Amino acid sequence: xxxxxxxxxxxxxxxxxxxxxxxxxxxxxxxxxxxxxxxxxxxxxxxxxxxxxxxxxxxxxxxxxxxxxxxxxxxxxxxxxxxxxxxxxxxxxxxxxxxxxxxxxxxxxxxx
Length: 112
Hints:
The protein is mainly alpha-helical. 60% of the residues lie in helices and 4% in strands.
């Protein structure tokens, strides 16, 4: 998680090659919930490390994807960044037809 926080891509590659657990949790600074290294990389705005972690399987369920998107927003990553686009694509693919309905319901719109 420290390599993800400081954007150390080489250290992250070595850790992943050595069998590091991408799902290991730690407390995130801004949110107070238990987040993984992907959340920490997104929170700090380290897009390269975040992309490496996604490729290693860090975002494999809807909860992790949504947490990473929240952290990316906190980290100041724009919606046009590659990692945010990748996470949004994974979220749409994971949630399927319910993704649009959930998005509209949060905004208070009808989705009939």
